[in-house]
Each structure stands twice: as C-alpha cells, then as structure tokens.
Specification:
This protein is an alpha/beta fold. It has 2 domains: 1-30; 32-226, Glycoside hydrolase/deacetylase (TIM Barrel, Alpha-Beta Barrel). The chain has helices spanning 2-27, 55-65, 75-79, 82-90, 104-107, 111-129, 147-155, 177-188, 205-220, and strands spanning 41-49, 70-73, 94-97, 135-136, 159-160, 165-166, 193-199, 224-226. It is globular, with a radius of gyration of 18 Å. The protein binds zinc ion (ZN).
Amino acid sequence: MKKNLVRMAFCIVLSAVMVFFYQRHLAQDKPAFALAQAQKTIYLTFDDGPSDSTTPFILDVLKEERVPATFFIIGRQAKRRKNLIRRIQDEGHSIGIHSYSHIYSEIYRSPEALQEDIQKCSDVLEGILGYKPQLYRFPGGSFCIRDELKECVKALGYSYIDWNASCRDAELINASVEELVQSAISTSADRQTIVMLFHDSAHKNNTVWALKEIIRYYKDAGYAFEKL
Ligand SMILES: [Zn+2]
C-alpha cells in the first residue's frame, strides 16, 4: 500500500516536471504562433506601460474578470511607477521587457545598443521584482527586425514573442470602444491560439472599456485565458 502511494506520488511529480518543461519548450524562442494549444486559448498582452492613467484601470478589469495577462514594460516608465509594477506582479500577471527607451533609432542601431537597452530595462525591473524577466517583445514587433538583432536577443537568453491579433489601439486615431472591439475580433479571426496586442500607455481610456467587452466575447466563445 505504502509502496503504491510512493509510486503514485512519484508519477505525479514526474508528470508535473514534464508539463513544466514542455510548456517552457513551447514558449522558448518561438513566435507567438508556435504556442499551439489543444484548447482554444487567448493571451492578453499589454505594451508600452506602465502608465498612471491606464494601467491601474486595466488591472481592475483583469481582476474583476479573473483573467491573467502579460505586460511588456518600458523601463523608463517603470522607474517612476514601482508600485504599479509590484501590483502587476502581486496580482499574478507575467512581466516581460519591452525596451528601456522605446526609441527605435537608438535601440536598433546595433546589437550592442540593443543589448545595452535591454540590460537597462532588466536592471530596473530586477530592482523592483527581485528577478530578471526572461520574456522580450521587440518595440514594433520582430516582423521587420534584422536577424543579427534577433540573434542578439536569443544569445542573451530571452524568448521573444509577437502577437497575431490586435485591438489596434496604437494605429487607430480616437478609436471608439466599438472599433477596438471589432478590430480585436476581426484580426484574431477565431484562431485556436490568440496573442492579442493592447497598449496600457497613457490615456488609452477606450482600451480599458474595450478590454472588458473583448474578455466577455472570448469567454463566451470558450477560450481559456493564459499568461506567457
Ligand atoms: Zn511598443
């Protein structure tokens, strides 16, 4: 009897370890689209924050709806908003690096410049969180990034991830809540695995309202909500 229990415990631990490493394998070094899931899954991702005028309200909605998300942080924004970074962490969301300065002409000048920028953001986040995030999102996405810069990010040990759907709150000027919701739905095209792009930079009020509707839509459509 005792032997059986030990054997069972061993199997459970072994399965947990296997699932953990399999998930890590899926997340590593792969674009968003390789995060294939058996179940319909959506990852909500927020770039360019934190900001005082948007991030707290985004967090409120996520809390009300009980769904996790991933925040790709700009280091210079985080420096002055340590409490918001701690709140993101405390409420169980994932945190990734989205550059220190977000100035394309500076960070994409060379692999050395990119490395310096990432390191600067990493230092800020480590000072607040107590660990170095291992996720990275290229400002503007990796779609048009030179191979040498992608190699640089991989060599530093980061997994970088893009998106395959967006509420388009960065491109649409003065978009209504309805336009943002419709953009999210039409760009995701009911994919099995969705990585949705939002922005929690300053004054994205309509993103906050749209988020609530977007979450409801995907809940009704049977999606599981995961963080990266
Ligand atoms: Zn950005």
